[in-house]
Write a structure and sequence with these properties.
Blueprint lengths: L9 H10 L2 H8 L3 E3 L2 E4 L11 E4 L4 E4 L5 E2 L1 H8 L4 H12 L15 H21 L4 H9 L4 H6 L3 E3 L5 H6 L3 H9 L3 E4 L3 E4 L4 E7 L5 E8 L9 E3 L15 H11 L2 E4 L2 H10 L4 E3 L7 H10 L2 E6 L3 H15 L7 E6 L6 H8 L1 H9 L2 E2 H12 L5 H15 L6 H14 L19 H4 L1 H7 L1 H11 L22 H13 L5 H7 L2 H4 L4 H8 L7 H29 L5 H14 L1
Parallel strand pairs: 12-13, 12-14, 14-15
Antiparallel strand pairs: 1-2, 2-3, 3-4, 4-5, 6-9, 7-8, 9-10, 10-11, 15-16
Helix pairs in contact: 2-3, 3-4, 5-9, 11-14, 14-15, 16-17, 17-18, 17-20, 20-21, 21-22, 21-25, 21-26, 26-27
Bound molecules: guanosine-5'-triphosphate (GTP) and manganese (II) ion.
Length: 585
């Protein structure tokens, strides 16, 4: 163990080391090769031709049999990158997203080993209570009714916290020091300074283990389904337990995960236990919190594929979307993320009990990839038959895809998006299409403006499909100066094309009033027009003009109503207003 300068609290160092993966730290500097249970490389600290430098993932330790160097992840960075101790800790903390403690402010360091020890004692106590306590009968019966076997209960070290305020307390914490330690470990609650009581009472206990198999916290479930109490009670955050970093079932599943190259992430303790019993063993659960970036990073270190499985209810769908957002920035070309939303409000546990593990495995195989899930979920929210919908679709998906790390996947998905909405892929690739490189403010986000402005859509279609000029009514110019973006430009171009439908873009430009000329960005407009499938062009065009007309009517009506209020309506105005009010019905 390296020396800890007083400036950084020991428990911070410990929790840093318990989260870091030495294999990844070293592999970033010295490519490692798996050899049995260890990883090996030629030693970076002395000259050699055959590898004698070995990294042990379980012990989180490296050692060179050639030159004898050894240490943990921090030590490696100190030696290899010539960092100071503090610099090495800061580097790792930064990579793990851990906040460095303020110097001097941190509480006195709790001894992690003592906390692990008392948690181990508590686990053994709860386990034993499930077997021997007469009061545990109900708990045992409940687990049996839910289909759990004794073997499963044992594998997950399930336990029972008896009813009463001090069963655990009197059994494992005889002196005040132990009581304080138990509070730190999340086992006891401190009341009025020197009184203590058991946090978990009359609950089935699910011990939560860290990746090295040490119990770091508990989930406690009420027995049965009706109670005023919350269904689950979890350990609070402690020096050894952080919900945003830990996953229930990881330790039990680690070999299955490595074997299957895939991990299933579910929401509940019971889901994990039940799936493992049914034979789906590469499964973990988040601890009653949403999935975090740390969870995904952690899993991606050991496995290329994560399959998220969520209940089919609204909460499940929301959680799925949150996970998607978390995963985007981490989804490089070496990893895959899939989503499985169960139908009919089943959760994974009820699903396997109803349809069997094989059925769930089929569903897992068919789970939607993250890109498919993104595209289909978004597509359901917009109307892809219309240009507004497609523009909205493209704009939103583009924002999500932008978060992906650079790589083949990202490029391919932007191409797929471009194809779907029928635009030049260059539009999405950060590179501007050549013709777009000179852009003024008007044209800068013309795609998103097309979303809100029917005038821009009508204009885009008209200059691209000149035959539409035949559909222009004679009074088209009357739409000028209504308060819709791009309307004046549309009216001016429409006037020109109505008179001479075959003239070139350059000629149109020359004929436009000076003030509008600069806004006539032909390439951008054609880009928008091409989002519309050919067979829908005319309908889209007439639809856009119809919106302009409706707006025009509203404005006229507002004007007449104002005049009516002021009592200045002419006879002609009155007639018009009457007509319009009738039309409106
Ligand atoms: P059952 O099948 O009802 O035993 O539970 P489950 O494991 O299927 O859990 P559920 O899907 O209802 O909830 C998912 C997870 O959210 C649980 O495993 C808990 O971690 C957490 N959770 C559920 N209910 C509560 C609660 O009342 N309080 C807290 N703190 N967490 C809860
Ligand atoms: Mn459940």
């Amino acid at each position: 163990m390296v020396d800890t300068p007083g400036r950084i609290p020991e428990d911070f160092i410990q929790s840093l080391l318990s989260r870091v993966d030495i294999v990844e730290v070293i592999n970033a500097a010295v490519p490692l090769r798996k050899a049995g249970t260890n990883y090996v490389a030629c030693c970076p600290f002395h000259n050699e031709k055959t590898p004698s430098f070995s990294v042990n993932k379980n012990k989180q330790f490296y050692h060179c049999f050639g030159c004898g160097v050894s240490g943990d992840a921090i030590q490696f960075l100190i030696e290899h990158n010539s960092l100071s101790f503090v610099e090495a800790v800061e580097l790792l903390a930064g990579q793990l997203g851990m906040q460095m403690p303020q110097s001097g402010q941190s509480e006195p360091s709790a001894d992690h080993n003592l906390i692990y020890n008392i948690l181990a004692e508590a686990t053994a106590f709860f386990e034993q209570q499930l077997r021997q306590q007469t009061l545990a009968k109900q708990a045992v019966q409940y687990l049996k009714d839910r289909g759990l076997t004794g073997i499963t209960a044992k594998a997950f070290r399930l336990g029972f916290a008896p009813p009463g305020w001090d069963n655990l307390l009197t059994s494992i914490a005889k002196d005040p020091k132990q009581k304080e330690l138990g509070v730190k470990a999340g086992l006891f609650v401190n009341r009025e300074g020197n009184k203590f009581y058991d946090r978990f009472r009359n609950r089935i206990i699910f011990p939560i283990r860290n990746r090295r198999g040490k119990v770091i916290g508990f989930g406690g479930r009420i027995i049965g389904s009706t109670s005023d109490e919350p269904k689950y009670l979890n350990s609070p955050e402690t020096p050894v337990f952080s919900k945003s970093h830990e996953l229930y079932g990881y330790y039990e599943a680690r070999q299955a995960i490595a074997r299957s190259n895939s991990v299933l992430v579910v929401e509940g303790y019971m889901d994990v236990v039940s799936l493992v019993q049914a034979g789906i063993t590469n499964v973990v659960a988040t601890l009653g919190t949403a999935c975090t970036e740390q969870h995904v990073q952690y899993l991606f270190k050991t496995v290329p594929e994560i399959i998220f499985c969520f209940d089919g209810d609204a909460a499940g769908k929301k959680a799925a979307w949150r996970s998607l957002e978390i995963c985007l920035s981490l989804l490089d070309d070496q990893h895959r993320v899939k989503f499985l939303i169960l139908r009919d409000n089943e959760d994974p546990d009820s699903y396997v009990r109803k349809y069997g593990a094989a059925a769930l495995q089929v569903e897992m195989k068919q789970a939607a990839s993250l890109p498919d899930f993104l595209f289909t979920t978004m597509a359901k929210q917009v109307d892809l038959d219309h240009i507004d919908g497609r523009v909205q679709f493209a704009t939103q998906i583009k924002q999500y895809l932008a978060k992906l790390p650079e790589g083949i996947l990202k490029t391919m998905l932007f191409d797929r998006l471009a194809q779907l909405v029928n635009v030049d892929p260059a539009l999405f690739h950060g590179k501007k299409p050549r013709a777009m490189q000179r852009r003024n403010e008007f044209s800068q986000s013309i795609i998103s403006k097309a979303l809100v402005s029917p005038a821009i859509r009508a204009l885009a279609l008209l200059i691209t499909y000149r035959e539409l000029a035949a559909d222009l009514a004679t009074d088209i110019f009357s739409l000028v100066s209504i308060d819709i973006f791009g309307c004046n430009l549309f009216c001016a171009v429409a006037e020109i094309l109505k008179a001479s439908p075959t003239i070139t873009d350059a000629e149109i430009k020359a004929l436009l009033p000076e003030a509008l000329r600069e806004n006539f960005v032909v390439m951008d407009l054609r880009g928008i027009a091409h989002i519309v499938p050919k067979q829908g062009v005319r309908e889209e065009f007439l639809g856009a003009i119809e919106i302009l007309r409706r707006r025009k009517k509203e404005l006229v009506m507002d004007d007449l109503l104002l005049k009516a209020k002021q009592n200045v309506l002419t006879d002609a105005d009155k007639l018009l207003l009457q007509q319009m009010l009738q039309e409106k019905g």
